Fold each of these.
Amino acid sequence: MASATTYRKNYTAPTHWVDKVDLIFDLHPQRTRVRSTLTVRPNENRPNDDFLLNGRDLELISITVNNHELARTEYAILDSGDLLLHGISEPSTIKIENVINPTANTSLLGLYVSNNNFMTQCEAEGFRRITYYPDRPDVMAKFTVRINAPKSVCPVLLSNGNLVEEGEIDNNWHYTRWEDPFKKPAYLFALVAGDLKCREERFTLKNGKKALLQIWVEPRNLDKTEFALESLKKAIAWDEKRFGLELDLERFMIVATDDFTMGAMENKGLNIFNSRCILATPAVATDKDFARIESVIAHEYLHNWTGNRVTCRDWFQLTLKEGLTVFREQEFAADMLGDPTARAVKRIEDVRYLRDRQFAEDAGPMAHPIRPESYQEINNFYTTTVYEKGAEVIRMMQTLLGKEGFRRGLDQYIRLHDGSAATCDDFLDAMAKANMRDLSQFERWYSQAGTPHVLVETHWNPRAGSYTVTLTQSCAATPGQPKKEPFFIPFDIALINAKGNPIPLQLQAETAAKGTSRVLELTETQQSWTFINIREKPVPSLARNFSAPIIVDYDYTPDELVFLSQHDNDPFNRAEAMEKLSMLCIDEMVADFEHGTRM
Ligand code: SER
Ligand code: ZN
């Protein structure tokens, strides 16, 4: 079936809000019964009595609206599988009963069974395969969940939030009841049931409260979970310290199974991972594996605030949670390394990944802005552009505003949008207002695809003792975007003197030198900056620490590259210089070789 195109510009608010969802599952591999009770209220701003509930591959048993069971003529099931209810003009209680077949579910979304374990994946649009529901992230509700299942097959029954009740039903069946105290969109719903074992610990939070941390796995994997638990504790402590964001639940669970189809998912209080992203012992894992596991655990945990407490209004805003969370994950990983050289190695790795994957995406037929304008299938937009370039866009804000300014902006963003569904514009707005900056031009990073080039020209005037840097930006056309407007590019620069020291920088208009590196703000197609008191010809260190996701065009001489390899006090650029130098040497060797064979 050809899917329709969804456009960002066509966003409309939901017709109805859901305040509460109460779900009861009777688990069965082929016939799981789902009973859902929705507490619904019309959105006063959009008076429309029709209420659309998404549904896919569901067997409907009954619908009751305010105690009236609907006849077949009182609702419509659309071709898509969605359910349309009419006349929901008052706050209402809607009860729906349906049956699903988790064994037959091969869509990788919704509830499925694999090796006798039941589990869910609801991002982006998987909840509609569990029950009829307005499956869109701007509908946020409080969930309670009861799971009934046979003890022998499913000794462990988990869902989001806090465990409020558990017990026996009869000799064969038992149940658990879960209550998530926070509103959430349906894509963060999770259920896991099966034969699992856990490693657990009570961990003291900064606020003095204790939280129960659990890592659930298939019994044979229990010995490989220690590192995961340690990583989770580090991530919790780091978010408290760096961003003042605390764990808000009494219990935080991670489940890792060999059969989870995605890499990892940040469901509220119940993250689900594929085993390969989490399990490790020194006997089987390399240092790189350990670093990767620490990062993925942090990534999913850090979503608790950036993604879950503040979520996305619609899927066009995916980078709002993913770009920001990848950035936070990168900062976490760097802080765990501590040592400046190790941090630089991490930065070099991240940039190499971006250049290999994202630059290629931006230069090809799939090029798209970090916030796309349209999609046919949202699952195709979980890209390196949305994730990794998205993280660079966030990092540029930190570069422009400074760490403190960025923190002020993030605080404001969370204060204003906690418990709601936000947009990328909301994020930019919070950053701008908290720092009294105009970031309207910066918004082009969200709307324009492509990797900008920045051509650098330098001119040293020995008589005046001045050094002029001219930056010219350009960006090739990408599909649907023939012409680009100038980007707002933070371009970090230093000038290194012959002794190998960075020179104090003073622009013509300034009365004194300020610092030995400077973030130039390139906002036009071409701009020049003239530094004074430059008595000897320096070597420039450009776009330090990869200050923007751009390609810098500047022809260093081999001698300058040798010099920067030795002296640049930005370790990222020192490595860049060495890499460029190696490339020059390889080019030279190839040329010599070709020359030799021709003779
Ligand atoms: N939302 C999941 C993540 O954390 C799956 O893409 O990246
Ligand atoms: Zn993520």
Amino acid sequence: MIVYKFGGASVKDAAGIKNLARIVAASGDDIVVIVSALGKTTNALENVVKAHCSGDANRDQQLIDIRSYHEEIANSLFSTNDLPGGLLSSSFESLIDNLRNTGTDNYDQTYDQVVSMGEIWSTMIVNQWLIISGINSVWVDTRKVIITDNRYRDANINWDETGRKLKREVENSRGKILVMQGFIGGTPDGMTTTLGREGSDFSAAVVANIIDANRVEIWKDVPGVMNADPAWMPNVSKLDRISYKEAVELSFSGAKVIHPKTIKPLHNKNIPLIVRSFFDPVSAGTIISSNEQVEQVVPLYVKKENQILLSLVPKDFSFVIGDNLGNLFQQFYRHGIKTNLVQASAVSIAVCVDNEPVRIERLKGELESEYKVLYNDGAELLTLRYYDRESIENITSGREILLEQKTRRSIRYVVKS
Ligand code: ADP
Ligand code: ASP
Ligand code: MG
């Protein structure tokens, strides 16, 4: 079996859904299709949750706009602006009803119940279009198959339960193409969870690992993994083959073409990952596999925006790398803050993290009893692999460097944005 994943950057309108169907039809293999929310729906739903939790009356209008966007797409694919059985309208109406009965204090839990709907609507539309196009497909409710804990917005997979449920689903749907939602899962007691922003790539890897897929193909709005984000730098070149190790380093550093959690489940079962062009489906893309021999010939540039550099100095002047280190990172984990770079000296530690103001405020409040907490917001994390003098000059020239970290392969800078 093969797992295909289509993201919102590709599937954002009726033409995108038609293209998806052509790609699926041309494959001729047994496929599981994983789809993200259409276009920027996830961002729009995040704003709905923010509005709901802050009591902003604009919430309902935001939902009406999201509904219109989906109805317009449905309208240009089907003969009405709805799915058979009025599925789209009933789903939007029950979301509004549910929100009216939902409090405003449990942000992360509410977030997952609301934001996950983007993937439900996209897969309903995609599946209906596949059926109309003569493809024997079936819609799978991923919330009942990808089983997780209840760490909302960053849920952990329960591999045993998911294995049992997913294998049964595949067995029952033999001969059909399964259409599943990326990014979302469910707890054993029926709450919806999400796996972290951009998590649909990871969903594809989880499914591939469990069903022992032959390969995963993620279809993107770029020709493959490039040596830099083409939206950032001109004249980038495609990497034809890279190792799992290279891919995980790039994605962890911020190359958002692949979600960093995607690589491990594939590496563990030696399943190749192909990143390829949604708009040019016959071109080869980038093959990511255990191939360790491939030597990079060009510098690789990665940028992670919206960072904050925290500097922590123990108030009692104890060594920061001593007994406290475990506790310190436990606090970051508990507040759901991922550490993107760490650098320590005897009595201070610098940690570069995504700038999520609410979480950071909570963390700061907790740390301030033991540490003096200094911070620099408005920062970017730049990573350069296989650097040389010219590439370093390229990314640092004219920038204010807050921190530098260098190894034989990589050099990383935290700079002012
Ligand atoms: P999807 O919605 O399909 O998951 P994303 O927008 O998450 O798509 O990822 C694709 C985007 O990743 C591209 O449009 C590109 O701007 C960005 N990107 C960042 N780094 C790279 C890179 N090294 N190579 C290719 N694309 C990259
Ligand atoms: N729709 C989700 C997001 O935008 C998941 C994904 O696209 O991978 O984060
Ligand atoms: Mg993505």
